[in-house]
Design brief:
With 254 residues, the protein is mainly alpha-helical. It contains nine helices and no strands. The chain has one domain (8-253).
């Protein structure tokens, strides 16, 4: 494995400039959709649901919506977005013809995916605050958590992209990996409501510790197991980032 250099920031800047030119075409999916789900599920279904862990249902799901859509932002950016840049636009080939290395390109892609998570998480947090769903000043750390989450999911997405033979392969990634986490990581229901085997398997899903931390920051209630959740996020990020640097080098140079 080769390390990346500070030049990865140039890839990040390139993606940032493109995003600011096209942001209006991406806003409905990354901003409007989570707000609609938050209000529809929180107010609609919430009218038929009692208190969940001592909270109104909309208060319970708000942290999970923040975490899950931060996940979606990084995942879409580093699967479909990265694949298009790699295979169709040939952006990667053009960049590695400069002094930037493959590792710089991948680090820049991952850091941009994390930035997309930060933007999405921050916007939804602001909406939640407007609806008075935030009850702790610790929620100011949500953007930091969203960025860390973005690093993790961007690294996982880039790893899958390095093996994807065609753009249609991402249907498997989202259907069999991302979507199940959306429903079984404590976003809409407490993990305690699932059978014990499902509760155990839920902690294998990378989204679960993020939802756990997000809910703690918004409520201001902290427990010792949050340290385990944070360690799990950092460990998975380091693991998948390291592997993706190797697999993408093979994909782009062999």
């Amino acid at each position: 494995m080769r390390l990346f250099s500070w030049r990865f920031i140039r890839v990040w800047q390139r993606n940032r400039d493109v995003f600011f030119r096209l942001w209006h075409s991406e806003a409905p999916g990354s901003i409007a959709e989570p707000i609609i789900i938050l209000l529809a599920m929180g107010l609609g279904l919430g009218a038929y649901v009692g208190l969940v862990d001592g909270q109104k249902y909309i208060e319970f799901i708000a942290p999970g919506i923040i975490a899950s859509y931060a996940m979606f932002s990084a995942s879409f950016e580093c699967t479909y977005g990265s694949f298009l840049r790699m295979e169709y636009q040939k952006t990667y080939d053009a960049i590695i013809a400069t002094p930037l290395s493959v590792e710089d390109v991948i680090a820049g892609e991952i850091s941009w995916g994390a930035t997309r998570s930060l933007l999405t998480g921050t916007i939804i947090l602001a909406i939640a605050a407007i609806f008075q769903l935030v009850h702790s000043p610790w929620a100011l750390l949500i953007p930091v958590l969203a960025f860390l989450e973005g690093l993790m999911f961007a690294s996982i997405a880039i790893l899958f992209t390095s093996f994807a033979p065609a753009i249609y392969s991402f249907n498997y990634y989202f259907t069999l990996f991302i979507t199940p986490m959306f429903f079984f990581s404590g976003v809409f229901f407490p993990l305690s409501s699932f059978p014990e085997i499902v509760q155990t398997l839920s902690w294998i899903a990378p989204l679960t510790p993020v939802v756990h931390l997000s809910r703690a920051l918004i409520s201001g209630e902290f427990h010792f197991d949050l340290l385990w959740a944070l360690a799990l996020i950092i460990g998975l990020t380091a693991l998948f980032l390291s592997i993706s640097l190797v697999t993408m080098r093979r994909r782009l140079t062999v």
